[in-house]
Amino acid sequence: MAKRTKPLKAPDKLVFLLSFVPYLLEQRVVDVAEAAQHFGMTEEEIRDAVRLIATSGLPGATGTYQPNDLFDIDWDSFEDDDVIVIVHHVAIDDAPRLSAREASALIAGLQYLSASPENASSASLASLMAKLTAGASAAPSRLAVAETEADSSLAVIRSAVTGGRQLEFDYRNALGQAGRRRVDPLRILSQDADWYLQAYCHTREDVRNFRVDRMSGLAVTDAPIDDHSDREVPDTLFQVSDSDLDVVVDVAPETIPLLADYLADSTTVEVDGRMRVTLRLAHVHGLKRLVAGLPGLVTVVAPAEARAVVAEWATAALAGYGDEAPLIGAENGAETPDR
Question: Residue 198 is inside which H or E element, if any?
Fold first, then answer.
């Protein structure tokens, strides 16, 4: 790193010192010349910074500085060998640390990312997982992220996208309609826990979104994809259509951010402690998955078709419990569950 020609200003010097101390603690033993090279500073500036650190600390309960309230270094190594070794530090250990459960959750997420082809053998992810393990307040629980059927499908889809080849697969939509599709894969997107392929469908002759877990029998063909540079490909996963259905629901206030992609507009009205909003969905059957993902937090108000579909779905689900099924609340004289 090139040396600077001008001295550091006070704010820059503060930033440097805040970075310098963690660097020394991580390195444990470091030469002055090596530190100067790392920070792009002169060796004398590094020595001045070390001397300043040695006079810094945190006053004790009495408001005065005692020996253990200050940083300390190995002065013999520093003065004789130009080597920096911090032998006592203060305040650093007071930084908040992740609990074992928090670290485990983050590590599991990183393991999931590491399983994708583009992140295979990623040194940065491996390093981050090691730091989370070392920095947790206790040893994180060992977790394994199981590969799902969607993961294996994603590998095939990614090969088609990167290779610029057409993709064929069987697809069953939310209405249960199935058929063989041939598409030009454009890109892969995610929405919460679901993965989608955005592609030009030769059957529909337009750009469509396909949910990966509804695909089967995937095959990468030898045919190259067509040129779609003149076609407008939407940046977002869900697009407004004239055929969309507006559904009025009452939701718990904390769920509003989770429904941002579905909101028809920004209008909200408070009704009995909940927020009444209008969702825009491609079809009424999409409500079933949305309600299942927010149990007890969504009440379908209108239209009647939407309430009937959700009621039928809930009744079928409850039937699986047999005699232990809870009672469905009656409303307007009909046994229609609205959640």
Answer: strand 194-201
Opening angle at CA 62, ends 60 and 64, nearest 5: 65
142 contacts: CB under 8 Å, gap ≥ 6: none
Q: How far is residue 126's CA from residue 30's CA, in Å, rounded to a whole number?
A: 25
How far is it, in rounded angstroms, from Cα 281 to Cα 264?
Answer: 9
Residues contacting 300, CB < 8 A, separation 6+ = 247, 248, 249, 287, 291, 306, 307, 310, 338, 339
Helices (H), the chain: 10-27, 32-39, 43-53, 75-81, 100-114, 123-135, 149-163, 286-293, 304-319
Tell me, yes or no, whether 258 and 212 share the same domain.
Answer: no
88-137 pLDDT per residue, tens? 877 655 555 677 777 777 877 777 666 555 565 567 777 777 777 776 66
pTM to 2 decimal places: 0.42
Do residue 157 and residue 203 come from a single domain?
yes
CB proximity list for 123: less than 8 A, separation 6 or greater? none
Nearest in space to 248 (alpha carbons), one of 180, 309, 320, 301: 301
In-domain check, residue 166: yes
Number of folded domains that form the chain: 4
- Taking a C-beta distance cutoff of 8 angstroms, is the pair 108, 140 a contact? no
